[in-house]
Amino acid sequence: MTVLHDPTESREPATARPLENVLFGAALAAQRIPWIDAPARALGLTPLTRESLTRQLMSHLKGSTSGRPVRLHTPFGAYLAPLDADDAADLLARAHDAGALGRADHLTPEGRRHPVAPHAAVPVPPAFLRDVHALAAQEAAHLIAARHADATVSWEDWCTVAGRLARRVVLGEAAAEDTLLGDLLAAAGSAEDAHEYTERAAALHRRLARHLRDGGGLVDVAEATGEETAAAVEHTLDLLTQATTHTARQALALLAVQPALPAPSVRERAEAAVDEALRRYPPRAATSYEVLAPFRWHDVSIEAGTDVLCATAWLNALAEGPGAAPSLCAVPGECEAADLAVFTARALVTALAEAVEPVVLAPRLDPDDLPTSLPPATLSVALVAADGSATPAPSAEPAPAPAQGRTPAHYAALTRQSAHSLEEHAQRLAECARDSGWNHDAVGERSRMLLLAHAERCRRAAADVRNAARWLAH
Amino acid sequence: MATRTASKGTGVRNKGSREAKADEVVAPAVVEAPTDAPPGRTDPELLIRASVLLADAALAAKQAGAEMTAATFSWRVGLNALKRPLWAFGALASTARALTNPGGLGFTANGGVLGETTRSAAALARLRSTPVSMAVDAFAMRIEAAAIEHPNLAAPLAKDLTDALVAGKRLDALRAARRLVDLMGVTRTLTTVSPVLMELFALIALLDENPANDDFAWVTLAGGVPTTDPFLGLPAGLVRQLNPGPGRAERADPDAILERCLARSSNEIVSYIDDIAALGNHGLALLRRIRCTDGSERHVLLLPGTSFGLLRNSTTQDLVGAFDGALRTDTTYTRAVKQLLVRSGVPVGSDLMIVGHSLGGITAMNLATDLDLVSTYRLTHIVTVGSPIDNKRPADPDTQVISLVNKYDVIPNLDGRGPSSPNDIPEHWVELAWLDDTYDYPLSHAPQSYSGTLRNAMPQHREHVNALITAYDGEIVGNQPYLLLDK
């Protein structure tokens, strides 16, 4: 806590100078243009990257206002921005206690505002958590089975499995395959305004109603404690889905590039990676809160109508030392739904780490200089077997197009897998050609010869591709 | 990966299909397709299995070509090459050999700007790569398998046509087609080749000099919705430009014939199809309100198919709209239907069933993929009649899809899932198929033909569908036609 406390006098929050307003607006605008600092990165000019310049600006603002929250006027709106993570949590808690905290909106890097589902949690008994581990292990096995030839799991497949895990935990087996529920949840989370959010939430509630009637998962527990509500289930499902789709994937990447985390067992390493992912890459990097009624925080008076901007990711980057991981829930204070979400993400990462070794293929991560944002959709993490082989079960989905502009080693790994795949196809074609069903007529014999010819071509192609892989790997 | 899970030749495709086959009623002109090859002939199932293996191998070879092309043209690899020229020489020689060895992958460069440019040049020079050869042979095996089930395809003139297309000899194919038309006429020719029409289109796309349309063939091979047409390779997005408009629904008054037909309506599949026939193809759709026996009020939408008069007209039921609906899911027809539901005041959360013929069935499936619609209403059933819908999936996994298909009809095969396609429908879908060669196309496609078959020759299919839609039994309290327009 850095704010001085004067119990007798309240004052207005400090206001930023015009130049500071312009710079802060520029920092917000730069979030929408990810490539804007590409020349600085390419030339290794780290102080000129977006992250570094933003950190410098925040440090300056913190220093010039003695750490107090500052009022900022930008082209994207007027905000009251706390400049310290602890201050932000404390200010929001004070507003919540005073009944002044209104709607929260998630602010995306692209500048969109999406209403956040209201907080309403269900108490989770400890016995329930045992089932979560079992479910996470089952879904981890599905993820491993869904790997492509390069041992990566596509973002779509990851979201499918992670979403199913969240539904199984919260709503039970009956909701496992209800993909429409996941789509409605995602649609509600990306609503453009309050009106659209209300409609999407209503559609989600209609869909949830059947599962609430049927019971299963957390719903049974809620009934046992008498506190079941559709809002609580929705909130819990929302946080679990975020944690399993976003945070777990980021945690795998951190696990891969930071093997020296100070934790001996796989479980502890996985849990530390999840906490690190939440701290560095909170699912909601920035949230704005509407203040409905005036309240006082220490010696600062906050008026009604103020928009409090919690740039969680920027505040975490500014903090000295690791600090606590921010809650998944937008509302300050204890949230059992958020705790369950983190627990589930940890269980999933642990189950994966116990079965495979994650290897980050893209983007290139420097453990000493991790990026300030790590979009899970663009992460390519291979799940390699413990013996170093990456042979997955054949996937029913077509392999993604190979990325352009990668290193020779990357293509060597891909082409090695392709050579193996071509060998397998050659064997299958030859085996099919041996079937006695081709013996009956000219069509059958012609087909057999075609299969054998193609088997031979696959075999030669496999040899050529393997040779090329060997050269690329040198 | 192409897969094959359903058995061929059964009239009913869903769990428990064996029971339906046991009590079939077969009339002289309407039969279930034969399940086994004649003795002394190769089993079509074996041909299909081999085509699946070849398709998988073709896709794997294409992927290998894409990876090595990416390696060859990667700037990082180039940077390494500058630092280590000897290594670069070896790496380049090995990848070039892998990409061009005629005994191996053939000329298989693809992917990325430079890769696609190389592939286009190869297409213009008619260089056939190994993946293309495998794909062509996979299609050829599918055609052979289809010819066993449809003996017309094995007739000499039809064989000349398919053989010419497999060989990539377009002039010979044109001549063979001309001879076929001279002998059988246009409609019988279309009906003859309809079981393998998509395979023939794919072969044309793959073996011509136009590289832009090759994606059509690869999608047909692996299953899915094509993103281009098979001839010019025009992207699906371009079709949208040809079918513009926000879609609009206007209340319409039924004419005397329609009114008489609607007066006899009931919650019964033959009645629904007769009502669709009575609506015609000039832009009308029908919204029915039913006070159901369980006390709920439910709604049924009837959606007719395409008008073949003009390529484009002011309604949503034109040929351009049909192409649009096949390639995309957001069309003037779907937008007009959504406006119809809002305009008519169907309550949010209502149960809704959509019955569609031809383009109407495609539109029903497109609506089922629409998250906005399925989150606003509860889409319980889609019943499609003669519609190519198998390459799309509803957003709500609980929506019951019922597809009625006359295998002699040309249109249902246009989704790429012909009688010899290895790609199958989800297990919980109900596909009721039969072979009625009473009429050639286009009569075989008419809704009256379908309702006649269900009424007379296939009452078991009629009963099956009716048993699935009993939730909509009740008193009809409203029958309102709407005119659906593009703008």
What is this structure, in a nutshell?
The complex is a heterodimer of chains A (474) and B (487). Chain A is of the alpha+beta class and 474 residues long.
Account of the protein in words:
The complex is a heterodimer of chains A (474) and B (487). Chain A is an alpha+beta fold. Among the domains of chain A are: 235 residues, Cytochrome p450, CATH 1.10.630; 66 residues. Helix content of chain A is 53%, strand content 11%. Chain A contains 15 helices and eleven strands. A four-stranded antiparallel β-sheet of chain A has the order 5-4-6-9, covered by helices on one side. Chain A has a three-stranded mixed β-sheet with strand order 1-2-3. Chain A has a two-stranded antiparallel ribbon with strand order 7-8. In chain A, a hairpin with a 2-residue loop joins strand 7 and strand 8. With 487 residues, chain B is of the alpha/beta class. Chain B folds into two domains: 182 residues, no CATH class; 244 residues, no CATH class. In chain B, strands 1, 2, 3, 4, 5, 6, 7, 8, 9 and 10 form a ten-stranded mixed β-sheet that branches. The N terminus of chain B is likely disordered. The interface between A and B is large, with 65 and 62 residues. Chain A: InterPro entries: Cyt_P450_sf.
